[in-house]
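Can't attach files on this board, so I'm pasting raw text. These are the components:
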Amino acid sequence: MLHGYTLPRTPGGTSSLVAAPPWHFAGDALAVAFEGDPASIASLLPAPLELDSPRCAVYFIEWQFATDGGEEFLDPSRSQYRETLFLVSARFEGLPVSYCPFIWVDQDISMVRGHLQGWPKQLGSTWISRSHALTSPASPVLGPGGRFGASLGVKDRRLAEALVTLREPSDALPTPGFARAVNVRYFPDLAGGGPLLHDLVQLRSRNVQVSQVWKGDAELALHAHPTLELSLLKPERVGFGYRFSMALTVDDLVVLKDLRDGVS
Amino acid sequence: MLHGYTLPRTPGGTSSLVAAPPWHFAGDALAVAFEGDPASIASLLPAPLELDSPRCAVYFIEWQFATDGGEEFLDPSRSQYRETLFLVSARFEGLPVSYCPFIWVDQDISMVRGHLQGWPKQLGSTWISRSHALTSPASPVLGPGGRFGASLGVKDRRLAEALVTLREPSDALPTPGFARAVNVRYFPDLAGGGPLLHDLVQLRSRNVQVSQVWKGDAELALHAHPTLELSLLKPERVGFGYRFSMALTVDDLVVLKDLRDGVS
Amino acid sequence: MLHGYTLPRTPGGTSSLVAAPPWHFAGDALAVAFEGDPASIASLLPAPLELDSPRCAVYFIEWQFATDGGEEFLDPSRSQYRETLFLVSARFEGLPVSYCPFIWVDQDISMVRGHLQGWPKQLGSTWISRSHALTSPASPVLGPGGRFGASLGVKDRRLAEALVTLREPSDALPTPGFARAVNVRYFPDLAGGGPLLHDLVQLRSRNVQVSQVWKGDAELALHAHPTLELSLLKPERVGFGYRFSMALTVDDLVVLKDLRDGVS
Amino acid sequence: MLHGYTLPRTPGGTSSLVAAPPWHFAGDALAVAFEGDPASIASLLPAPLELDSPRCAVYFIEWQFATDGGEEFLDPSRSQYRETLFLVSARFEGLPVSYCPFIWVDQDISMVRGHLQGWPKQLGSTWISRSHALTSPASPVLGPGGRFGASLGVKDRRLAEALVTLREPSDALPTPGFARAVNVRYFPDLAGGGPLLHDLVQLRSRNVQVSQVWKGDAELALHAHPTLELSLLKPERVGFGYRFSMALTVDDLVVLKDLRDGVS
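---
Top answer:
Structure tokens for the assembled complex are below.
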């Protein structure tokens, strides 16, 4: 009898790349809100999602994860990962949602756990400035004047760079945000024919906590790539930058619509 | 309209982690045949596979891949990867097949392309001695007396080490081999209930070419790991070691059996 | 005219691997104090250092660095690095000092900057649990009951693992500490003869700041390696574990003794 | 008594990052000859080297190394590394030499072994197409029409990309070549004052072997970087590309001139 939430499935069930949910996450984020070209953003949306606005956001996050009682963070090579993701503003059946066209992480566990939720994760290298709890020219202050940078690299090419100078506390998180994120699960069939799995899903998270949010000025640069169409999100106007911590739990998903041909 | 063989799907279709098949592969392999404990090996087999023999093999391979006309090898960070995989000897409906309980690669493209074929790929670090085409104390000879090593590491833990001393040409490849490999495709449903996809599939490859095969003495060590149950394959007897190159094309798959509960 | 603090030296001087001091550092540390075998520890000391006690400490640290006005942390791939180092208790001319037989970092900049100070740095992979500022099963609390892990891996082999459960605030840092660390600078001469540089140096740091220190129970395991003689530090008794942040500035060094043959 | 060719020096002497010479190397190279701006190239030369011509070459190499009887290639994570280096055409006391302003490798052992010879090595990521010994769309042929690519990335930024299409065998290697390479050894003194070591050295290699050399058309792109002054080597004219294997032994060095102030 084989056990395990994903492959490889084994007698003990401890070899699976992804352990069974719930998955608890805690992380520190640097984010930048921006606006792109509406037609380009709309071109990235899977039907039946429609463009809501040209508002986008990029998040650079250092995460730590654990399952119930798993304490994976005690062997942090199995728990920590860094992530860069882009969210755009969409509408599903008239209601505003966010949609993620691109996301990169630096660990296999996170990558496949993401695929199960429809996150289109690839491997990439994310770096984010840290604020250590001491006064030093090596550590930006988590407060007015604190300067933070972040970068994304994919297979030795730098794709994104952000710079944020904190100015003041903020009551609000950047938008679009994670709260109503909609993804697409997709599994093509090498045996031929259409995909075995192709549906629109909405993420559900609980136990959501957010720290004090700091807000400030921001710069954002996205660089061209020979195959990754990230330039469809080229910023036309850059908004505020944000720094905050958050925690949440994921163990559910709502299927919004089967997208396979001939499936109503 | 979104295009792409896998996520992320985009207007141009060039952003997908995995490009559409056919996928052409060429690689250099170091392999060691061995026998493990029959009951332990059997415990790794998904029903209805049955144990055929205690014969196993581990392959360490440096691959390069391309799609039709894609010439991905010209940007080798997108084409090259290293792999370690274990094959065991099973039987499906009375016929001998091979089954892969564990496999590791070092690139996301290869990892997800594997998942689409049921390979239970995780990220791992493989190193293999190379024979350069010159006489040097730094380069083993590809012939009698040539000594080759290989290792597998997973998240900073070394899991496997092999050592092969070539003795003579061989007419045969190690067994179990890739020819009739059977995998399990598996996609759990975070929305609840059983897996969305759970079937037994048989790989099909074509254009298979193999170089001259060299054979010799071998040593193999597998190390304990806190969660990965690789020690179920602990060698009880180590057979020959092999060195060879191979090339093949993959663009098809045969579904042998749906393994979901209640599906006949 | 070429400029730069280290190679490569160039017209603009910005290409050097290491920028000119002062070097400012801020970091979060997990440390474990322990005692080893006195004779084994003594065997690691360069003359004229003598053993002071069997007390040792291992530090796992996530660092961020900057030069004066350089703000390297805004491009954190050039500023952040992780480090594992061991300190032992020695005596120089009757005064207690600490000595570092082994240290690993994960960035070239830090590695060579260390060599200039006599730190025997090699590349290694360090992971340390983080406490995010929110309550989550994914984040240990920085206070009583908080559990933290750390690991060191070198070329796919895991060398060290630590586990600390915080119990109470501490007025003291672990010992041996960084305050009076003594290193050896060493540069062999490929042209033949003895080393071009071989001296005993004492580090000087300033602007030293330390956060609240938390102390608790600890476990520590060091694993055997085919060439790295870390097992000379095998713990015979494991003391307290510590968690704290620190910041300091380095821009000076004191030469204690030239160790080349025939130099008095 | 401590032993070891470099730090860390230990009782057994096996922990040193770099083992004592002789060092044997075998590797596969892709190279592109090109011409840059004479004044820019000259600005990179350390006095008393003078510009000989605007001829430059970039080499991308996959190396394997071993010491006498060390067989390091049997644990290839300690033996294999990839390298990108640039050579320019200089003159020392009227004789033509080559000089390396920039070089990147991906292993600590190689990096420090290079520093001992004056190579200004930094960590970087090199990828090179391979020709496997079989006919496949995934493997370029090592002969007329074979197309090979290579790239260099440094901390998530791509710095160089080359493309070579082989046309014919060549009797000659690209120039400038390794044969008379001149480097600068340099060790700054953190205790203050000028460098402890600053001299011009000429490499000596023996047992040099070269395989059949293939030559063809080439493209080369160097990309701008915020601090690395590689654009001083911007190609004004790109010459032939080359593919070959080579092996050599290094265990000596000739000091040409002490470059410290006040040292004649």
